[in-house]
Amino acid sequence: MIKHIVMWKLKEHALGATAAENAARMKEMLEALMQTIPTLAHIEVSLETFADTPASDVVLYSEFATREDLDIYQTHPAHQKCVAFVKEVAEERRAVDYVI
Question: pTM of this prediction?
């Protein structure tokens, strides 16, 4: 199984919205991928982090059966739409993928 974790720090203002408003939109977009991308086995998106250094506004945790499933997810048009939005509103991104 593949675990995929991403953490973002958002710009204070982007695309005419606050960081909190853009975080809420990100959460909605990312969670909707569960119904769109069959290789996505599980997803969690949180806007309430604590004790993280450096601080994050949005945290994504997702699971995939195989690396190939993760690749399909990452190149899927619905995911790419999320990526385009996130690139506009995020100032920092940290990610890790690992196998269990």
Answer: 0.94
